[in-house]
Specification:
By secondary structure, this protein is α+β, with helices and mostly antiparallel strands. It contains two helices and eleven strands. It has helices at about 1-30, 95-105; strands at about 50-55, 60-65, 65-70, 75-80, 85-95, 110-120, 125, 135-140, 145-150, 155-160, 165-170. It has a four-stranded antiparallel β-sheet with strand order 4-5-6-7. The chain has a four-stranded antiparallel β-sheet with strand order 8-9-10-11, with no helix packed on it. A hairpin with a 2-residue loop joins strand 2 and strand 3. It is extended and about 90 Å long.
Length: about 170
């Protein structure tokens, strides 16, 4: 009687262990190298190293150690990559400010703009317009379509690439 109770009480455990063994054998057949990183085809692909920086006032993309300047105006700063790594948002002096500084180096009504450009330097978008004494800064991607940046001393705006428009969120 004790043997029968023992068999009934623990038969589920035996079947559980048999199931684990069958699962392990099945995994070994499907993936003979095991579940380690060495057997993972995705993990064995080389990772692309991609960074952006401002060097000498120009935006530079560093892709796997190869540096390429994608702007040449000498007035750009604060680059940041979009989450999908296809676009760069950055700050640059407005063309009106650059022209005024060339004509008069003592020009004081400086203005900066938020710009967006493709990673290869194509399709530049001027996200803001020139306003005397308004400096933009600290661009940050909210997602692949929207960028928030500081505008002046007391406001911030969100720029939408889809609608090509800005919306004030502070100030």
């Amino acid at each position: 009687m004790t043997k029968v109770l023992f068999r009934r009480r623990y038969s589920w455990l035996v079947w559980f262990i048999v199931g684990l063994i069958v699962l392990a054998v099945g995994l070994a057949i499907i993936n003979p190298k095991g579940l380690s990183q060495q057997g993972n085809p995705i993990a064995s692909l080389p990772k692309e190293e991609l960074t952006v920086d401002a060097v000498g006032g120009n935006i530079v993309v560093d892709k796997n150690g190869t540096r390429t300047a994608i702007t040449s105006d000498g007035h750009s700063s604060s680059p940041t990559l979009s989450p999908n790594k296809t676009k760069i948002a950055f700050i640059t002096k407005s063309k009106e400010t650059i022209a005024a500084l060339l004509a008069d180096p003592t020009y004081k009504k400086s203005s900066t703009n938020l710009m967006v450009i493709n990673l290869d330097g194509s399709s530049p978008i001027v996200a803001t317009s020139h306003i005397n004494n308004i400096d933009r800064g600290m661009p940050h991607w909210l997602d692949n379509e929207r960028i928030v940046s500081v505008e002046g001393e007391s406001s911030a705006k969100i720029f939408s690439l889809r609608t090509r428009s800005s919306q004030a969120i502070i100030g």
